[in-house]
Design goal:
CATH topology: Immunoglobulin-like
Structural class: mainly beta
Number of strands: 8
Largest sheet: 4 strands, mixed
Strand order of the largest sheet: 1-3-6-5
Low-confidence stretches: 6-24
Radius of gyration: 24 Å
Mean pLDDT: 84
Number of domains: 1
CATH class: Mainly Beta
Shape: globular
Strand content: over 45%
Amino acid sequence: MKTLRPFAIVALASAGLLMLSACATPGAPPPARTVTDADAGPIELTRGQGLEIALPLNAGTGYAWRLDREAPAWILTGGSSRVTDAKMPGAPVTTLYSYHAAGSGKTDLSFTLKRPWEPDKPDDRKVVFQVKVR
């Protein structure tokens, strides 16, 4: 039986390590980040990270959050929204907007709390998030 020479052993071991490293999956993105109207301002995300924006309102008042400025799809994807169920009539609920950081860049997400049938007014409540994806 032939024995392998030391350089052959090192070469085989190196090839095996290269194959394993090629199959390795990159680290998972950080967990999704949830922000509220109190967090308005700069928001930093990592590519692949989720973003959930939770905006409070009172059910039954006619007010709703309106998305004024949408993000480009190459920076943030998704943009789906839903309103949580009220525990009782007139109780607080939350409008949840869900996004996924798709690519590097900067964008603003702008929201206004208003009754949809009323004209825009200067004193309407506005919330803006300056999102940066790295």
